[in-house]
Amino acid sequence: MSHTPHELADEFPQDHEILHTLKMNNAHFVTLSERYHEVNREIHRIESEVEAASDDRAEDLKKQRLSLVDEISKMISAEKAKA
Question: What is the C-alpha separation between 47 and 65, in angstroms, rounded?
């Protein structure tokens, strides 16, 4: 179990410029990014024992985060294909 937040910039270290471009030009990406950060912060609070949660709740949040990362990854790949 890691107590380090999984920020998008950490998840995609080679894609800072693309993340910025998507944030500035893609409303759907902004929504996904905001949702990712909400879920990620909640996971971090649980893992840091700042907030209590059942194992099921923690696993559900991790699955949500993974799903969001997958969708964001597809958006990054699509943006790279445009270049």
Answer: 14
Contact yes or no for 12/19 (Cβ under 8 A): yes
Q: How far is residue 70 from each of residues 19, 23, 66, 73, 77, measured CA to CA in Å?
A: 14, 17, 6, 5, 11
Radius of gyration for the chain, computed over Cα atoms and rounded to the nearest angstrom: 14
Roughly how many angstroms between the first and final C-alpha of the chain, as a whole number?
A: 37
**CA 49 to CA 4: how far, in whole Å?**
13
The 10s digit of each residue's pLDDT in 16-27 is: 999 999 999 999
Q: What is the pTM of this model?
A: 0.89
What is the model's pLDDT at position 83? 74
Alpha-carbon span 77 to 83, nearest angstrom: 10
Cα(81)–Cα(64) distance, integer angstroms: 26
Dist CA 25 CA 82 (whole Å): 14
